[in-house]
Amino acid sequence: MHVIDKCKELLKLAKNSEKTNKVDSVELYKQAAKCFEQISKTKEKNSILEKAAIITRELATSSESPITALEYYEQSSQLYNDIGKEKEATKIMKLAYENFINTATKIRIETKKINDLDIAEQRLKLASEYAIKGKNEALSQECWIDLGDKIREVARTIENPREAYEVFQRAIHNYRKAHVETKEFVTLKYTAEKFHKKANEIFNSKKQLASAIDNYNQASIFYSQIKSEDKIQACNKREQEICDIIGISKHSIIEFLDSNRQSSRSIQEIKSPEREKIERELDDPNQDLVLKHFKEVNKLKERAKPHSSEILSENQILPSPAEEISPTSKLENIGHVPSKIEADTKGIQELTREVEKIGKVKSEKQVLNGSVTESKLNQPISDIMENLEEKIKSSEKIKKRIKEEIKKGKPKPKKKKKEDKKKTKEINKLFDKAIDEAMQDFDSRSEEIQSAPKFEKPPKVSTTIVDVQKEKEKIIPEIKSIPKIEKFETEEIKVDSPIDVTENNIEFKVEKPFDPSESDEKYRFSGAVVDVLKEKADFKPTTEKTKTIHKPVETKEKVETRVVDTKIDRPIVPDDVVSKLHDLKPVIGDDRKIIGSSIINILQKQGYIESKFAHEKDLYRVPEYEILSIILNYHPISLENLEEKSKLDSISLVLSNLNADGLIKQTNDYRWTLSQLTLDNLEKPQHDPIQKVDEDDIQKLRARVERNSTLERQFIATMYKFRLIPNREKSLTSLMKIPEFAIIRLIKDNELIELSYIKEEMMNIPPVQVSRILSRLELDGAISKNANDLWELSDKFVKELVGS
Prior knowledge:
With 804 residues, this protein is mainly α. Helices cover 56% and strands 4% of the residues. The chain has 33 helices and eight strands. A two-stranded antiparallel sheet has the order 1-2. A two-stranded antiparallel sheet has the order 3-4. The chain has a two-stranded antiparallel sheet with strand order 5-6.
């Protein structure tokens, strides 16, 4: 009697919880059924289990996830089997399969509207799995076909055949999963046509023909897979034509590609361990994505997207498009286009754990004053605490010392006296005189620049007070020797709070900014007078970071002291001056030949030279123009000598292009010389020849060259005149990035210099490139070698720099 009461109590609890929590209600019904089974109440037991089966079926119907619904359907089917209702159990499982099929069909329809290929791929794969769980193999194959069609359409829009090939591979893989050979055949045909079309474009352009052979060879391989003999013969015929033009056999080119792991391959040949692993996992019937939780499937959609940065193994890398390589790059530098790996959809939980492990703190880098410094994000806490304790101790010592000084009655620091102001006036006069002398000397030597243009108003800069008391002992002899200049007067800069002159880096705003446009005669560059002053007055600033500049003004009661940070890169040549400098006649050696305008027109028609190139310096950036100029001045010349005089890496391709255009030809001893077309179009440069001077005169001119005057305008003007720097560069930092400017400036500052020293100073330039740059500068007439094999400025450059 006690057991029956317990069973009835469980049944009552199950009925009460049916409305609030059906899952708990099912469990209570199962416990009640077991209870009635113990007392041999079979009828009550079967009735209770059927009630539980009905509730479980309702849970399956209301579940949004087919995975969760499958679990409930299986529980309901098992309960019907337990009470002997097999037909009802089978009916329940059919509902589960239909649920999977309906879900797969719904996903398939939704995917047709999705443009994102990665998301569509994951959704269709999931639909295929659902179709398999629904016992519908035909629907699963249709999902794979839909995925292949989507990928193939994307591949057909890609112009580059190698990038398209990587995408076509994915489409073919999906067609093979669906066992559709016709779709695979059409995709192979599209792939072959991509390579064939690209090869024809390269062949018609008559440039970089080696890459055309590569594309024809790849197209032939794909045509052989679809058994298109006519297309294969057409590709072979074009390959032979190209080999006859280049003079290199097809076998040599293919062997070169093979040696660089760039051989052409078919889809069947490409089988890397990673791809085989992916295919095995996709083909594994035991792999069960569907039984994982629905939320994890969403994680798969968001986190397991394949990206283009995921690269397959090296064995399946196709040759990268050689047609995209610049003329100056070597053929062996052909890269490859990364392919997308199909997402490994097996280990969702493993993928989630891997993503959660990524949490490394990267050290930040900040660029300060031209140098990169690492931040202290990774500094240990113990070090930070030690530094903090030291600062606290030092601050306590300072407080203690101040208290002792107050007790002793130490007087406060006195304010600046009027005598200091007078000394400041005299120092300002010294600065201004040195500036005027430097600018007068420049104006007397400058013939092209009649008057200096106006500066744009520079931005406000931080200022620092110079400790006059410490400098007066060093500069007092020069102050006494300078005559008085009455038109310069001083004016104090008012500061809100008292300033201790012993402190460094005190910043305040200058009320009136520096404007050189007030007087053309007193025009100067910011920062330039500091270097001139070092020689004129032998004055050294108080700190290494700042230099003091004083400027004269025409008003009666204003003299301002400006401190300029020399690390701030200021324009050293104004725009108006640049516009005048680039019109100066170039200085070229009398015996040097230049390329005629008719040949330049031929190079423009062939696409070598852009119409916007207006200067010879710009033309030298074109590989064909540079090689043609070297041959013009040194013909006949061997390939080895060409490589020494040029900085190009792929000279052979450039020579092949020029030879095809009829501008050069090869002699019987395999040296390169000019064709008759080029010889008929030679011109002498239009310039004013520089008169020869005696050796003593040129030595006098060399003695007048100002060494260490890094911001001298006449030096920069000479560089412009020799066309060694482009006219758009207006700051010292940008000019120093030009190797020719940096090397000539180094030679100027050292007068005579060895080659080894130049290579040591130019550490950011390879030694081989330094030698080639020196050869080109010597060819341009800017530098020369003396009898001791030392580099120096050429006579023509010195004459232009100093002036006769």
